[in-house]
Write a structure and sequence with these properties.
Structural class: alpha+beta
Number of helices: 3
Oligomer: single chain
Strand content: 35-45%
Distance between the termini: 36 Å
Largest sheet: 8 strands, antiparallel
Number of strands: 8
Order of helices and strands: EEHEEHEEHEE
Strand order of the largest sheet: 3-4-8-7-1-2-6-5
């Protein structure tokens, strides 16, 4: 019986730098239509959730403006540039991101939740 290769475009990785985080191309393709993003940490499960919001959702006043993050998207990556977000993640998971370097973690897009889930249990070396 033949088994065919099928690329899973919902898997990718997220890299944390000292002032921003980067989504790789696979994950960016899943968030291409995002107007804003919200970030939440589950410390017990050691996961970070990035929820994508449409323009209507972001402007609906359901969410506070301070919780809405801008996602800059290029052809090859997406970036959230906000030092306070990185500090939040460092504090939540007792991380220290080295200067001039980064920490990389596996992530998966969950279409039903419109979210990227970052597995913080193990860094990719």
């Amino acid at each position: 019986m033949l088994e065919f290769f099928d690329l899973d475009n919902n898997n990718g990785y997220v890299s944390f730098y000292t002032n921003y985080l980067l989504l790789n191309k696979n994950l960016v393709n899943c968030f291409a239509d995002a107007y804003r993003v919200r970030l939440a940490c589950d410390k017990e499960a050691k996961k970070i959730y990035l929820f994508k919001l449409s323009k209507d959702e972001a402007l609906s006043e359901i969410y506070s403006e301070s919780s809405l993050l801008k996602l800059a998207i290029t052809k090859s990556y997406g970036r959230i540039s906000q030092r306070s977000v990185i500090e939040f993640v460092e504090n939540a998971f007792s991380l220290t991101i080295p200067k001039n370097s980064f920490l990389k973690f596996n992530a998966k897009y969950l279409p039903d939740e419109k979210a990227i889930v970052i597995n913080m249990k193990e860094e990719i070396k």
